[in-house]
Model the fold of this input.
Amino acid sequence: MEIVLYKSITTALAISVVFTPVLVKISRRKGYVASVNHRSSHALSVPNTGGIILCFAVLTPLILFSDYPQQADFSVLITAFAVLLITGIIDDFNPIPVTFKFLGQFIPAIVIVTSIDQQELVIPFIKELVELPFIFNYLFWIVFVVMSINAFNLIDGIDGLALGLGMVSGMFYSIYFFIIAEYNLLIFSISLVFGLLGLFFYNITDKFKIFIGDTGSLLIGGLLVFFALKYIDFSGADTKNQSFFMVLASIFIPLADMLRIALVRIAHGQSPFKADRQHIHHIMLDLLGKKHLAATSVLLLVQIMVLYLFHQISLLDRPPYFYIIITSFLVYFMAVHVLKYYRDKQLSKDKCQSNRYANF
Done:
């Protein structure tokens, strides 16, 4: 198994490292680049086709070195991820309405959720209180899958962030699948991690710089929430709350920031889908002097710390998972509010200084 694992890692990394420069040259020549607008964190047009490389980096080891293609649900799941991929590609090259984008996420979400044993799909923290019809379980998890996919789509705003968060979460699931000897899923998840690693290198540098676009961010979100459902599926009946607790930990930054942004926009009478520069990565980028790698490093460190702390809590005897989750989100909301206050104060100060110099 070790040899197969090494082959999977090498193949995924080689595909993303070797073929990315080729795709960058083709994309620049064909004009497949991310346009610059008021929300952009980059000043120049950059190819946004990295998601295509990621797809091949993940799929190739899975087909070559795992038994997954022989399983009954493989073709169905591949179709689901193909829908996500196509949705992302269309949106990258010609932005589509939110309605159609959600449709391209709900269809894969339904497929992914229905691939899990019905008995394992319970709503966390509810089963102990009331027994709901199974349809509510499906609705909850379908909505959760769509939210998770969108969370990674929205967090992809500065160099390396979505890629780094995907690597952290993907490594968490890889370790788990290794421990329980689910080698097909291990190959699947570790290929994602090292496919992202190769793209991360190009994403944070200037030469052959490439973005993963909606294609890549939707694919990362879809794969990670698929691994999350498998993680919950394999956990025992008595540990469903604990496993959901760790799933939230694995995607804490993307999910918490999406919820915060949606609540803030709704509170101001705006659409939750309104585009702005109020995400945590935009705030950190402004506070750290437009240094992408510094902002990404801080947020990745926070994500790793949250994952570690949640894991340590999960080892305690019957911790109050629900209240810890609520408290964690509230702490995050307040912390970002404080950071936003200092960011806005700094921007206002810089603007006043610019106006003062302009008057001389």
Notes: Strands lie at 33-34, 46-47. Residues 2-358 form one domain. The chain is about 75% helix and 0% strand. The chain has a mean pLDDT of 88.
